Amino acid sequence: MAAPPSLRPIARRIRRLAGRLLFALLVAAIVTYTVFPFYWAIVASLKSGNELFSASLLPADPGWENYRAIFRDRPFARSILNSLLVATATVAVSLALAAAAAFALGRITFRGRGALLLAILAVSMFPQIAILAGLFELIRALGLYNNLLALVFSHLTFTLPFAVWVLTGFMREMPTALEEAAMIDGATPFVVLTRIFLPLLAPALVTTGLLTFIVSWNEFLFALTFTLTDDKRTVPVAIALITGASRFELPWGQIMAASVTVTLPLIALVLVFQRRIIAGLAAGAVKG
Amino acid sequence: MRLLSVLTVLLIAATPLGTSRAARLALACGSVGIEATLCRQSAEAWARQTGNTVDLVSTPSGSSARLALLQQLLAARSADIDVFQIDIVWPGMLAAHLLDLAGRVPPARLDATFPALVAANTVAGRLVALPWFTSAGLLYYRRDLLAKYHRPVPQTWAALQDTAAAIMQAERQAGTPRIWGYVFQARAYEGLTANALEWLDSHAAGRIVSADGRITVANPKAEAALAQAAAWVGTIAPKGVLNYAEEEARGVFQTGDAVFMRNWPYAWPLLNAPDSPVRGRVGIAMLPRGSDGGHHSATLGGEGLAISRYTNHPDEAASLLLHLTRRAAQKQRAIAAGFNPTLPDLYLDPDVLAANPFYRDLAATFANAVARPSVVTGPRYNQVSAEFWNAVHSVLAGRATAEDALARLDRTLHRVSRGEKW
Amino acid sequence: MVATPATRARRRQAWRYLLPMLAVLAAVAGWPLARTLWFALTDARLDTTGGYHLVGLDNFAYLAADRDWWIAVRNTLVFTAASVLLETLLGLVIALTLNARMRGRGLLRAAMLIPWAIPTVVSAQMWGWMLHDQFGVINALLLATGLIAEPQAWTADPNLALGAVIAVDVWKTTPFMALLLLAALQMLPPQLYEAGRVDGLGPLGAFRHITLPLIRPALMVAVIFRSLDAMRVFDLMYVLTGNSRASASMSIYAREQLIDFQDLGYGSAAATGLFTAVAAVTALLIIAGRVRLAAAPDRAA
Question: Staple A220 to which of A113, A236, B144, B405, CB 3.0 to 4.6 Å?
Answer without folding.
Answer: A236
